[in-house]
Amino acid sequence: MQLVCPAGNLPALQAAIDAGADAVYAGLRDQTNARAFPGLNFSDEELRRGIAWAHARGRKVYLALNTYPDSARLAHWQAAVDKAAELGCDAIIAAELAVLDYAARTHPLLPRHLSVQGSATTAPALRYMHERFGIARAVLPRVLSIQQVERLCESSPVPLEVFAFGSLCIMVEGRCQLSSYVTGASPNRHGVCSPASFVRWEEHADGGRSVRLNQVLIDRFAPAEPAGYPTVCKGRFDVRGEVFHALEEPTSLNTLELLPRLAQAGVAALKIEGRQRGVAYVASVTRTWREALDRLAAAPDAWQAQPAWQQELARHAEGHQTTLGPYHRHWH
Amino acid sequence: MKLSLGPLQYLWSRERTLAFYRAAADWPVEIVYLGETVCSKRRELGTRDWIALAHELAESGKEVVLSSLALVEAESELGALKRLVEDGGLMIEANDLSAVQLCAERAVPFVAGPTLNVYNHRALALLAEDGMRRWVPGVEQGQALLRELREAVLADGNGMPELEVIAYGRLPLAYSARCFTARALDLPKDQCGFRCIEYPDGLPLATREGAPFLRINGIQIQGEDVTDLGPELPALRELGVDILRLYPQADGMTRVIAHFDLVRHVAATPPPIGQRNGYWHGEPGMHVGN
Question: Across the interface, do A237 and B151 touch by the CB < 8 Å criterion?
Answer without folding.
Answer: no
